[in-house]
Amino acid sequence: MDWTVALALYGVLLCGLLFGGALIGTAIGLVGVVGVTLASGTRLWPTFGDIVWNTTTSFTLVAIPLFVLMGEIILRSGLASRFYGGIAILLRRFPGALAHSNIVGCAAFSALAGSTVATAMTVGTVAVPEMRRRGYKDTLTLGSLTGGGCLGILIPPSIPMIVYASITQTSVLSVFMAGVLPGMLLALFFIAYIAVRVHRRPDLAPAPEATDITKPLYSGIVDSLPVALLILAVIGGMYTGVVTPTEAAGFGCALALILGLAYRDLTSASLVAALRNAVVTSCVVMFITINAQFLSFAVVSSGVGRGLSEAIAGAGIGPFAFFCLLILLYAVIGMFIDGLSIMLLTVPVLFPVFMAVGYDPVWIGVIIVLLIELGALTPPMGLNLFAVQSISNAPLSVIGRSSLPYAVMIVAFCFLMYAEPRIALLLPEFMRGH
After folding, report:
1. CA distance 347 to 364
2. Residues 65/276, Cβ–Cβ less than 8 Å
3. Measured between alpha carbons, how far is 177 from 425 in angstroms, rounded to an integer?
4. DSSP H helical ranges for 240-315
5. Using N-to-C axis directions, what is the helix angle for 159-168 and 172-200, rounded to 10°?
6. CB 337 within 8 A of CB 160
7. Tens of pLDDT along 200-223?
8. Using CA of residue 217, residue 218, residue 222, residue 224, what is the dihedral sign?
9. Virtual torsion, Cα 199, 213, 149, 182, nearest 10 deg
10. How far is CA 74 from CA 111, 234, 302, 316, 402, in A?
11. Distance (Å, rounded) from C-alpha 5 to C-alpha 351?
12. Secondary structure of residue 45 in the 3-state scheme
């Protein structure tokens, strides 16, 4: 069967299943099984068992449930609220202080939760009532939460980064380190935007002298330091080579548990809830990942990846033109499918094309994470919009308008990354050099 026919058949079958109400993981898996069957009959069916075994026993993917559990313990032990309160105290003299705290808080929790929605909801649960009480406008508050939440899968550890590395056989540690500088730089862009907006519209936030100054400055350091040290220990351990990403996940779980018990905020009920949520989240991720491997096998066995790469090369589409098409493609798909599913659906098909065009596999991994972040801000499927709406009860139209500048900044940042790839590649190169 010609690869173009196979690709068209996969697309029609996948759309039919999704519009018919099938779950994304089930739809991807069924398309993979049908594709392999059409290409090779039933003789390759035993390979599906090997795929399930290899995926579920992958040392790399073991990091997913461990990082999820670490984030759940932090979120349910009270450390999250304590950290946000400390950051708010440290930044209280700045105009729009709590809006800046949202970005800093989201950047920090992204290194713990590894999830866009979890990051936005965790910070938002604390921030929304406090900012409304102090007189912040919702247009400033809600946008800083949806935009800041996008940092949740860019700064490591990141579940989509682990999945990407597993699919493409790229070093997890290299992809993790490639996300650090872009994540920090994008957070600074967000902070700069908030500062400029508050300067031009002082009515969006109370004046710095109107904020609560009853707590001394050192209390902010005391409250924020434990979580900051935990982040430093996890990322620093990976960067220095002391631990692998999977070992860092286990180490982070142990540190989070110790901190939660030390502050006596982690009850037995909250620990059970953290374990339950970690199991549920991990099962969902693994189910979709296994089915995505079925689709990847079908793409390889039918020659779709190779044929698409040759077609792109033959059409004379340059790297920049393809990059623009890629942004458009992910922007459209992101309106209808969640980020992890987008990655698992597109990467098996497009990765050979990335290599044929000449993209670095680590760099393009960070770009894809940025683009699925964009999907979290675009209706009708923007998960960050619905997450913030669930805790703020604000109209979705207001949240969408507040989030638009952050979506524009993400697209602009993608082009900056294209112009200067070393923003992502500097740390991995430096790490390999040492």
Report:
1. 10
2. no
3. 8
4. 245-262, 268-302, 304-315
5. 140
6. no
7. 888 888 876 544 555 667 777 787
8. positive
9. 70
10. 11, 14, 45, 50, 28
11. 20
12. coil
The residue-averaged pLDDT of 116-126 equals 72
Task: Assign residue 135 a region (left: φ > 0; alpha: ψ between -120 and 50; beta: otherwise).
Answer: left
CA–CA distance, 226 with 221 (Å, rounded to integer): 9
Q: For residues 396 and 385, give the distance between their C-alpha atoms in angstroms, rounded to a whole number.
A: 7
- Determine the Cα–Cα distance for residues 334 and 332; give it in Å rounded to an integer: 5
Residues 6 or more apart whose Cβ sits within 8 Å of residue 270 = 76, 77
- Which of 36-50, 287-301, 348-362, 375-389 is predicted with the least confidence, judged by mean pLDDT? 375-389
CA atoms within 13 A on the CB side of 262: 10
Cα-Cα-Cα-Cα dihedral sign, residues 172, 174, 176, 182: negative
Nearest to 146 by CA among 341, 386, 334, 366: 386
Whole-structure pTM over 0.85, yes or no? no
Report CA Rg, the chain.
Answer: 22
DSSP states along 341-372: HHHHHHHHHHHHHHHHHT--HHHHHHHHHHHH
Which 8-state DSSP code applies to residue 204?
G
What is the residue extent of each domain of the chain? 3-433
Report the distance separating Cα 65 and Cα 71, nearest Å.
10
Provide the phi-psi class of 29: left if phi over 0, else alpha when psi is between -120 and 50, else beta. alpha
Residue 384 parent element (H or E): helix 383-392
Give me the residue label for tokens 């313990």.
Answer: 73
User: What does the pLDDT look like over 275-331, one tens digit per residue?
Assistant: 888 888 788 878 888 888 888 888 777 777 677 777 776 777 888 999 998 898 888
Residue 323 to residues 80, 109, 257, 408, Cα–Cα distance (Å): 37, 30, 43, 16
SS (H, E, C) 224-260: HHHHHHHHHHHHHHHHCCCCCHHHHHHHHHHHHHHHH
Task: Single out the residue of 259, 180, 184 nearest to residue 223, CA to CA.
Answer: 259
